[in-house]
């Protein structure tokens, strides 16, 4: 079935309860993200950006509202179903990379493939090598994270996010800890993943330069979305 948008949120609400305290970081949010879009999400600290990323990546479940991605109804899935959905559908890129320190770049990128059934060792090696090549780090496959620069670590993390070929990537401040040159490399990479590989990308950022690399920018303010600028697909 063909849908108008790849990600469709309707009345999306997340309520956190701790004892008698209730926090509602997202309330009644409507959002459509077309397939292949590179969307930047900005907004003040605490405005619910990570909360929204966690919902659309299946890490967390909405308290109410609808959330469809492609043909999948995420709000209707159990946590177990979401875990399986995530393994094939979504790559997550974190601000601080979250690589496993005792594993090489190659082994870090291989991790998501170990969850996939029916892949031979040779298939896995081929796919890991392809992902490392895509991020320009074929020559660093045997290096551990401590032997890489921050920008290189983030490129390994991107290779890990794309190695299982999910249609969706989410990134939470992926350039937040990087110098300008490394940040630009990461942004170029993300942009080419959307334009050349058709990935749909939702990126949270505090950095106007990063937002500029995206095809659309939305601002989250107290759980509401405001469109402030948009420009033609790059
Ligand atoms: N697990 C949780 N339990 C209770 N409250 C939470 C939880 N996670 C987030 N919150 C609250 O929800 C609100 C939104 O948090 P969120 O992490 O989505 O903000 P953010 O926009 O990503 O902020 P930042 O820019 O600082 O990363 C905050 O008030 C936060 O304290
Ligand atoms: Mg956050």
What is the CATH level 1 assignment? Answer: Alpha Beta
- The general outline is globular
User: How helical, in percent, are the residues?
Assistant: 25-40%
Count of β-strands: 10
Topology:
Layout lengths: L6 E12 L2 E13 L4 E5 L6 H8 L7 E6 L2 E2 L5 H11 E4 L11 H10 L6 H14 L15 H13 L5 E5 L7 H16 L4 E5 L3 H6 L2 E6 L2 E7 L4
Parallel strand pairs: 3-8, 3-9, 6-7, 7-8
Antiparallel strand pairs: 1-2, 1-4, 4-5, 9-10
Helix pairs in contact: 3-4, 3-5, 4-5, 5-6
Task: Describe what this molecule looks like in 3D.
The chain has 234 residues and is of the alpha/beta class. The chain has a single domain (7-230), classed as Rossmann fold (3-Layer(aba) Sandwich), CATH 3.40.50.300. Helix content is 33%, strand content 28%. The chain has helices at residues 49-56, 79-89, 105-114, 121-134, 150-162, 180-195, 208-213; strands spanning 7-18, 21-33, 38-42, 64-69, 72-73, 90-93, 168-172, 200-204, 216-221, 224-230. It is globular, with a radius of gyration of 18 Å. The two termini are 28 Å apart. Magnesium ion binds next to helix 1. Adenosine-5'-triphosphate is lined by residues 16, 18, 23, 25, 43, 45-51.
């Amino acid at each position: 079935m063909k849908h108008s948008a790849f990600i469709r949120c309707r009345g999306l609400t997340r309520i956190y309860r701790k004892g008698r305290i209730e926090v509602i970081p997202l309330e009644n949010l409507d959002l459509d993200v077309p397939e292949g879009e590179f969307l930047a999400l900005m907004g003040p600290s605490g405005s619910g950006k990570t909360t929204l990323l966690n919902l659309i990546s299946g890490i967390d479940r909405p308290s109410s509202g609808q959330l469809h991605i492609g043909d999948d109804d995420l709000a209707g899935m159990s946590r177990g179903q979401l875990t399986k959905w995530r393994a094939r559908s979504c790559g997550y890129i974190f601000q601080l990379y979250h690589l496993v320190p005792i594993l090489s770049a190659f082994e870090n990128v291989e991790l998501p493939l170990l969850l996939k059934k029916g892949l031979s060792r040779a298939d896995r090696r081929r796919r890991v090598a392809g992902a490392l090549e895509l991020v320009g780090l074929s020559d660093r496959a045997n290096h551990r994270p401590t032997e890489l620069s921050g920008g290189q670590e983030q490129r390994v993390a991107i290779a890990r996010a794309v190695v299982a070929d999910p249609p969706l990537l989410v990134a939470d401040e992926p350039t937040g800890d990087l110098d300008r040159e490394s940040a630009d490399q990461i942004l170029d990479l993300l942009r080419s993943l959307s334009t050349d590989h058709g990935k749909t990308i939702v990126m949270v950022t505090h950095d106007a330069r990063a937002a500029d690399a995206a095809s659309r920018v939305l601002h989250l303010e107290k759980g509401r979305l405001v469109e402030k600028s948009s420009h033609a697909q790059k």
